[in-house]
Amino acid sequence: MSGLTSRFSVLSNPFLLGGSITASYVLLYTAYDKKTRQLSSTNLVDFFLCRRGLDWTLVEANKAISLSGLTILMASFLPQCSAIHKELLGLSMYTLWAHSVYSYYKFYQLDIRKVINDKAMKQLSIALGVLGQLSVSAGYFNQIPFLALSSASTALGLAHFYTMEIDYKYVLQVRPFAYLPFPLGVLVGYYLFVDKLFK
Fold first, then answer.
1. Do 102 and 33 touch, CB atoms closer than 8 A?
2. Whole-number Å distance between alpha carbons of 118 and 198
3. How far apart are CA 10 and CA 96, in angstroms?
4. Which of 20, 119, 129, 183 lies 20 to 30 Å from 163 when distance is taken between CA atoms?
5. What are the extents of the domains in the chain?
6. Beta bridge partners of 166
């Protein structure tokens, strides 16, 4: 009974749920060592103590919050989180905007010309990300209906992530835990479209 109560308390507290999702990415994504293909406590120590430099820690933190923001976004559309939908949507919006601003600074030095001169796939990914951000913001401020918000932001968010992380063979190059948003996106689609057909 205590475990059940704990589970529902997480689903009823947006900050606890959002924090848990973010912590999971730090523990299971940031800690993953690509060379050994195992979780490494050394990576976590390096991350928190900035032993590989502040820049490395910030880049890793940016990756974690981008995945966290996308996951929190899609969690907000699940019926199990309907009571805290607005709060989760807000957490996701602010997290993803922070990710966008830092990425624009880190990789393009706030220079739009560098974006224009980047590879076509990166430009497509950025465009998808911007559209996704706009849909999230529009939904948060009640400018578009729930179905448009949930379907557009989920599709655009996943498309942005995929196109940003694929290699020249169109293979997704990410650590294992970073695949979580994709089945979650399928679950969102199920609740938005399929589940309603049987009610």
1. no
2. 46
3. 22
4. 20
5. 2-197
6. 172
* Phi (first) and psi of residue 171, to 5 degrees: -100, 130
H/E segment holding residue 56: helix 54-75
Residue 166 dihedral angles phi and psi, to the nearest 5°: -80, 155
Structure tokens at 52: 């590989």
Which positions of the chain have pLDDT values less than 70?
1-8, 196-199
User: Which residues, 6 or more positions from 101, have their beta carbon under 8 angstroms from its beta carbon?
Assistant: none
What is the rounded radius of gyration, in angstroms, for the C-alpha atoms of the chain? 17
Residue with tokens 């399928």: 186
Structure tokens at 148: 């448009």
Question: What is the C-alpha separation between 120 and 127, in angstroms, rounded?
Answer: 10
Give me 88's structure tokens: 């989760």
- The pLDDT tens digits for 130-187 are 999 999 999 999 999 999 999 999 999 999 999 999 998 999 999 999 999 999 999 9
Find out whether 135 and 149 touch, Cβ atoms under 8 Å.
yes
Kindly state the tokens that stand for 174. Answer: 């990410």
